What we know:
By secondary structure, this protein is α/β, with parallel strands linked by helices. Helix content is 38%, strand content 26%. It is built from ten helices and 14 strands. It has helices at residues 3-26, 35-41, 66-78, 89-97, 158-163, 167-170, 198-206, 217-224, 252-268, 270-279, and strands at residues 43-48, 57-59, 62-64, 81-86, 103-109, 118-120, 125-134, 150-154, 171-173, 179-184, 191-195, 212-216, 231-233, 239-248. The strands form three sheets. Strands 1, 4, 5, 6, 7, 8, 11, 12, 13 and 14 form a ten-stranded mixed beta sheet that branches. Strands 2-3 form a two-stranded antiparallel ribbon. A two-stranded antiparallel ribbon has the order 9-10. The termini are far apart.
Amino acid sequence: MKKTSIIIVATLLVVASLALCFAGCDSRNLATESIDDIKASGELVVSTSANFPPFEYKEGSEFVGWDMDIARYFAAKLGVKLVVVDTDFDGVLSGVAAGKAHIGMAGISQNPERDKNLDFSDDVFDSSQMIIIRKGDTRIQDAFDLEGMIVGAQSATVGYDLANMKESWAYELDENGNAILDKPILGKPQKANPYPTGAEAILNLISENVDAVILDKYPAETICAMYPDQVEILSEPIFEDKYAFAVAEGNTELAQWINDTIAEMKQNGEWDKITNKHFGSTDEE
Length: 285
């Protein structure tokens, strides 16, 4: 066999081996991995949507924020590398459910609908959904003044579900968790406009493409601080909210490990240290 032919055959064998490796990596189902599996793999994969300051955002190429600091603690405790998958918010939830990440950390609110496809840690942060209006707009003074308005929100979030009058969010619930349809918690908007990020929703408010925006409290405060003469946040929340970390349905071992590690962080002071770094002194648990 000629030397050139040998080189070609060897190259094809290398390519075939790499293809098999990538196929194996692509087929890896993180939803079923145990703590020992994660340690053996050498990496903890966390899915987030890095446009949600101060919980997760980017400084240059680095992922930073409250969730990201906690994710780093998790990885260090396991003795593995942290791998962050950045996607849109809806992709965080679907990615964890599909086994593309071990944990979803992105200011995720838990409710019965999401609980069908995901398991969750204990609650990790108290927040709320706020209404943002243009500075001095007297038409909207509370949630019921959103009746007939065009309301913007970040797509796939609680804010968008509220603006879209989704039953699992926009109504009072009975003791069984079912929506009481004659008891809405806001006036029904004429239209709900989804945007990729909360910042884009607020820019569209400034541009008068929407009448109001519904957004989580802390990102709302962070973004609105950049436009103090153009927008303001109503003082009363539209919805009281709690965040949790998401894992794949049935991965109770990982959910329990997260809860145990959070308890450890609260005991050793790391939880307060991270929270104070991003929010100042708060009463959040």
